Amino acid sequence: MGATIETHCPYCSLQCGVRMRVEPSRAPVIEPTEFPTNRGGLCAKGWSAPELLDHPDRLTTPLVRDDRSGPLRPASWDEALDRVVAAIRRAQREYGAAAVGCFGGGGLTNEKAYQLGKFARVALRTPHIDYNGRFCMSSAATAANRAFGIDRGLPFPLADIAEADVVLLVGSNPADTLPPAMQYFDAGRARGAAHIVVDPRRTATARGGTVHLQPTPGTDLALANGLLHIAIREGYVDKTYVDGRTSGFDTVGAAVAAWWPDRVERVTGVGEAQLRRTVQLLGTATSAMILTARGAEQHSNGTDTAQAYINLALALGLPGRPHSGYGTITGQGNGQGGREHGQKADQLPGYRRIDDTAARAHVAAVWGVDPADLPGPGVSAVEMLDRLGTPGGVRALLVLASNIAVSAPDRDRVVARLSALDFLAVSDMFLSDTAALADVVLPTAQWAEEDGTMTNLEGRVIRRRRALAPPDGVLDDLALLAALAERLEAPGRFSADPRTVFDELRRASAGGIADYAGISYERIEAERGVFWPCPAADHPGTPRLFTDRFATADGRARFVRVDHHEPAESPDQEYPYVLTTGRIMQQYQSGNQTRRSRSLRLTADDPRAEIHPDLARRLGIGAADLVELRTRRGTAVFRAHLTDTIRPDTVFVPFHWGGPASANALTDPTLDRHSKMPAFKCCAVAMRRIGGP
Ligand code: SF4
Questions:
Q1: Domain 139-332 carries which CATH code?
Q2: Which residues approach ligand 1 with their CB closer than 6 A?
Q3: Which CATH number does 63-135+334-494 carry?
Q4: How many Cβ atoms sit within 10 Å of the Cβ of residue 466?
Q5: Could you say which of 84, 330, 435, 611 would form a disulfide bridge with 13 (CB–CB 3.0 to 4.6 Å)?
Q6: What distance in angstroms lies between residue 118's CA and the mean position of ligand 1's atoms?
Q7: What ipTM does this complex have?
Q8: Whose CA is nearest to atom 3 of ligand 1?
């Protein structure tokens, strides 16, 4: 007897709806549904997702290592859990509670992200918890909080994109990263909308746009200040909106006064005519959106860069206007929900600050503990990784849903720090590069084997539904945390049941910024997702934010003065080119899942460096030659892809691979001072040919 279950793709923030057919003795198959985000669309990754479920690499038994230099061997769950608990107790005894850390992921369901945050604070009493979302949209989140008092990736439904007359997309390539979402952009263009794409590469998205601005990586902030300068000088500022709904404009206006177009061109490489056209399109549109993504945000000035585009949006009076506003396009499947429920070093559930007395009292009451027992803020992901195994740093680390050894910047240093730990435990479905370094590996369930909720890029809370049982020997992360909490004799209750955990999450979030109190599994089913904030069962949810006020104390949005600074690392004689990194359509994040997919490997099993033909000619590099890239952190080898779609001074590499083609062996770990986002998108690199095709 078969069954058909509606759930969602395991990968990116679009969370496309899929229908899964499960029959005895047959591999499960999926097809897209008409869910309001994907409306029948699905990308190659989504179509291939069932291949993961019975993949021969699947971990189905815990693995343990008897000594650091020895091999991993199969073990029972009792032995594995006992080892984790013994290592935690040893680290706590020898170094104190803060010597134990947790590292989570933006792919965890809301229930798991919530439970991991609670586990760290209540069962471990450690401040040391952070997650890989710090590498994702933390800069835009910080900027949005400063300006609007709230951080929701898109403050409007995705479908509004189709209705906007002008869209400015900065550092975003949805044609490759969110292919089904292109239907909204395509519909807009079919209506005559103008799309302006800012990207150092002429991506598939840029090729379909009306205007393509191709700045030097690391200069997006100067570009935004230059656009605002023109908007002010040419009278496009919406004075009524600025006076009535914002504060701080005069300071920002003064700060951009020096950004004349010729200066902007010198810094960014974008000419005056394109700057003026962009402002004219934005300034005369009835509805317009400014959307940023990682290309603008993953820099040592990423927060200020996102802020500069928010300043521009506010000056033009966009946020809160119909089919208009500022948003960031999140990346990971639960990148939005993953940062709302306490997985971040400085936050408690409901997007509450952990150093806020009232927030601590509220959450502690839900957890059944004394607020005085809750630890304070910890440190950000890279800061925690930097101190692994050092005096005062974390000595025992539990990693869930994250492949740090591939996804963190300056890979060699990260691997050295992971290897310096007294103890590393990793929960994963496959033996990732990070799990391969662990003392204990804990096999976990995956997308179609679990129940829970995810929050997509629009702030829409959706249901992930269980379609089949996990293989024998696999333990869902909620059950793992419950078993560990029990062995640690933790106070409070750690349920392994997703619905019970979600109901607790609702209570913990009530009254917070990300308020889920009125969202239930039943409502999500009935309404095909509910938008937060939703403070009560009879509240309709909030698809559109800022229509009449912002979430600040006075209801006004804040302009924030931001100034351009050179990137942390610029080209010089030794490293003469700019390196930038990003995604390709067929792969996802560290590739731990998608690199195992046979169908995806058929089309993308060959990490390639995009190099302009002029630069290649100067360096004697031919098509498909092997090239070595070298930065101050390390080296990596890629096959050359010669293309005039990239700037001649810039090299692009995808970040989905470890091993010799590891982009993050090259990247710069310098942090944005506000968000602690590493500078993934820009560093200085040298390059040479090392072999033929
Ligand atoms: Fe949709 Fe993203 Fe999955 Fe592709 S990877 S099918 S765009 S959710």
A1: 3.40.228.10
A2: 9, 11-12, 14-16, 38, 42-43, 45-46, 178-180
A3: 3.40.50.740
A4: 17
A5: 330
A6: 30
A7: 0.99
A8: 46
